[in-house]
Amino acid sequence: MSSSAAGNISNKAARPDLTTRLGPLVLKNPVMTASGTFGFGAEWADFFDLSRLGAIMVKAVTVKPRRGNPMPRMCETPAGTLNSIGLQNPGLDAFVAEKMPYLMQFDCPVIVNIAADKRQDFIVLAERLNEVPGIAALEMNVSCPNQEHGGIEFGVDPKLLDEVVSSVRPRTSLPLIVKLSPNVTDITVTARAAESAGADILSLTNTFIGTSIDVKKRKFKLALGRGGLSGPCIRPLAVYMTHRVASAVTIPLIGMGGICTADDALEFILAGATAVATGTINFVNPDAPLRVIEGIENYLRDQGIGAVSEIVGAVRR
Amino acid sequence: MRYQLDAPIISHEQIADCEYEITVEAPEAARDARPGQFVQVLYDQSYNPFTRRPFSVYRVDLARGTFSIVYLARGVFTLGMRRKRAGEVLSIIGPLGNSYLQDARPDCQHLLVAGGVGAPPLYFLASEMVRNGMDPRRITVINGARSENLLVAVRELNALGVDLRLVTNDGSAGATGLVTDLLASEIQIPQTYTVVYTCGPTPMLRAVSDMCMSAGVPCQVSVETMMPCGIGVCMGCVVKIRDAGEPDGFAMLRSCYDGPVFSAEDILWE
């Protein structure tokens, strides 16, 4: 942007401050890419400079490599998709050796999403990644089935959630984000459990469990018979949950769930999220996160608001 | 280089029963596209349909900076895309994926086996081979469809001067039956051909792969899968690919990023 004609003063005044403070984590803008929708960044090399993002939340990393679930793993639904990918990823060692060096080239915080089906694996991930340079925060994916408790998700039972977050918390000095599952009766209960167990930040929401059936074949469209619903179809649900959680906890929130445009992101921010993440839209429009950043900046300028932090939770009845 | 752009539609024409060709202006994408590569297309931003769909690059015109895709209008997405008119734009991402590897040895005999709307990338391959100076008599194309009015690229393939064999299920054009019937009867793969390239419906790809493998002839297969993102991140298009270095001897590779072209001997069909 040229500043010569308008002069530095008016230009500076016109440029809203997008700096985002999520507890211990400071970002240049509030827009991230949600885990599982952005790979490990390298696939984006042709589309834009990753340094422009507020942060990257990489695909879930597990202790051992995972091949994922049988196909078909994904299907389209009205204004969304259902997926049961099954956390396909190269595993902790390959992530550290092969993916981190690439990500560290960029001036962009890297948030590593960690997933496990037993508590000990979460601890292994947290301890190991604590030693790896270049990681800005850990995000716990607590929506996996817990193999030690009959396959129930960690994230739907406040007691299990408290146990797993409490045991990970002392194992890392990195900011700890807990990604809440929306598949609960009252998300404020699990949000408070995660907060009291030591989470620094909450992200919400993960996908909503759903299914879709091919009526001609009389079969589920996904091999597993169910999947996680994401995309614009879940946005009103996720915005509502964000608003409820914002008044139930004191730690900052990262809002996500069907964000496609700056207005969508602003809904989450006004509902109480300090930062946001674009998810499924990244599959459709790889440049969506940039459009959201630009759109938030334009909105703030048009509204005469000096900083994005001023409108966090500013929704009125 | 992969581009995300709104490409002006130059023409949009019906070329067969329920089959249409859209030509767009996108000079960089046209220049970079290799045979077997595809583009992810979106014609509407209203989230319904929400995800893009992949279409193989068909005809490239470097002088005009255009390329085309072919689609069969039969689902929500393609029926909606049919409404797009010349002068409007099509959102494309591409070119994407890997491409067919052209065996450049001078004594090679190339066999291209196409089924239905699998013909466009193989036409692109044949046209590139001829453009690079290959004698078109070294290229045989088997082009099959259910009936004559569903065959694609017949005139264009004839214009290249390749040895074109048509086959239709109902005998309305060329031989009667399946492309594999023609492969089994007339075409003596191992005696005549040194390399096979194929694209079409999965049962056909599998049958062609099996025939090539038992004949000991290398076969490059462009797999047919759904591709929710097409850019290598959603992991919704994976195929089982033989890999001795992996547990159980296979890896789950992305057909959009590591493919769509794989060696027949590496594919573990499910």
Structure description:
Chain A has 317 residues and is α/β, with parallel strands linked by helices. Chain A has helices at residues 8-14, 92-103, 119-130, 158-168, 187-196, 235-248, 262-271, 281-284, 288-303; strands at 20-22, 25-27, 31-33, 55-61, 74-77, 80-83, 110-115, 135-141, 176-179, 201-204, 208-210, 213-214, 219-220, 227-230, 253-256, 275-278. Chain A is built from 9 helices and 16 strands. In chain A, strand 12 (213-214) and strand 13 form a beta hairpin. Chain A has one domain (10-311): Alpha-Beta Barrel (TIM Barrel). Mean pLDDT of chain A is 94; it is low at 1-12. The two termini of chain A are 38 Å apart. Chain A is globular. Chain B folds into 2 domains: 3-96, Elongation Factor Tu (Ef-tu), domain 3 (Beta Barrel), CATH 2.40.30; 108-224, Nucleotide-binding domain of ferredoxin-NADP reductase (FNR) module (Rossmann fold, 3-Layer(aba) Sandwich). Chain B is 21% helix and 33% strand. Chain B has 7 helices and 16 strands. Chain B has helices spanning 27-32, 76-81, 119-131, 154-160, 179-185, 189-192, 202-215, and strands at residues 3-16, 19-25, 38-42, 53-56, 60-61, 66-72, 89-96, 110-115, 139-145, 163-168, 175-176, 195-199, 219-222, 238-242, 250-254, 261-263. In chain B, the strands form 3 sheets. Chain B has a 7-stranded antiparallel sheet with strand order 4-3-7-1-2-6-5. Chain B has a 7-stranded mixed sheet with strand order 11-10-9-8-12-13-16, sandwiched between helices. In chain B, strands 14-15 form a two-stranded antiparallel ribbon. The longest helix of chain B is centred in the last third of the chain and has 14 residues, at 202-215. The mean pLDDT of chain B is 94. The A-B interface holds A 37-39, 43, 46-47, 59, 67-68, 70-81, 83, 85, 88, 231-232, 260, 280, 282-287 and B 1-4, 42, 47-52, 91, 93, 225-226, 228-229, 231-236, 238-239, 251-252, 257, 270.
